[in-house]
Amino acid sequence: MSERISLRQLDYFVAAAEAGTLTGAAELLYVSPSAVSAGIGELEHRVGVQLLLRARAKGLTLTAAGRLFLPQAKALLASSEQLRASVQEMGRRPTGRLVIGCFTTLAPFLVPWLLAEFPFAHPGVTLDFVEGSATTLQRLLRDGRCEVALLYGVDVDDGIAFDRLHSVQPHVLLPQHHPLADRDSVRLSDLAGLDMVMLDVPPSRRYFSDLLTRAGIAPVVRHSTSSFEVVRGLVARGAGYSLLIQRPALNVSYEGRAVQVRRIADEVAPLDVGLARLEGAHVTQRAAAFASFCRAGVARAPWTGAAAAHGAPQG
């Protein structure tokens, strides 16, 4: 039976490749340079090829085989660390700080509820949050600045896993005395040529523009803003109609002016709301607990689009 590669040998090789010298690798690993050299020698013997060239003046240089082997060695070490963390978490209640991301227009509806309710189910977890556009949240996931993020299932990048929680339908927002406000529902074709107030937070603008374009409508965008409440305030002042997803409990702007919410009469595909995470990343016990909590409760949370669609009170 052939001798197997050890994690210690891989550690020595990766550290040496990144440090560029045996001394530098030894300092990183708190061992002697001779131990690093011996470990790399054993590894090269196991794989049957030279991985590093040693030169007194230039330090260590990866061979062609070493360049191919380095990313695989890193992946094996990362997998072993994930396995260790998973085993340590078994049988323990989730603890620690969990940073979640939330899409900016979803945040007012979900974050206060989550911060208040999640600790009852998992008192050992300290929940914190960041908010932003879909682009920002996916960057934060890749950077490791949040573990999971609540967002819409639109423009989800490669390498980001998306777990659907529930679906919502867009609606038309109109000024109180708009001619279309006396209807129970509005066809998208009825909006042709009318001024629009556009919510401009990626991916909202592209989603709503595509929705109108598929109906043969070229949106006439009079104003655009990244603020959900500025959209509602401008509509309440008669600046135009808008298309939105989330619906607050009260159909009034910050000024107290009324807005009218109308269902879209056209057949419009629902928009998914879900949890995003970085593919391949270790899922901590606290992140798994949060995902389970969301699957059980987000669709029924107060003032979500799903709750409103199923008869939750609207103020």
Q: What pattern of helices and strands is seen along the backbone? A: HHHEEHEHEHEEEEEHEHEEEHH
Low-confidence stretches: 305-315
**Number of DSSP helical runs:** 10
User: What is the straight-line distance between the termini?
Assistant: 73 Å
What average pLDDT do the residues reach?
Answer: 88
Strand content: 15-25%
Largest sheet: 5 strands, mixed
- Strand order across the largest sheet: 4-3-5-13-6
Account of the 3D structure:
By secondary structure, this protein is an alpha/beta fold. 40% of the residues lie in helices and 23% in strands. The protein is built from 10 helices and 13 strands. The protein has a 5-stranded mixed sheet, sandwiched between helices. The chain has a 4-stranded mixed sheet with strand order 8-12-7-11. The N and C termini lie far apart (73 Å).
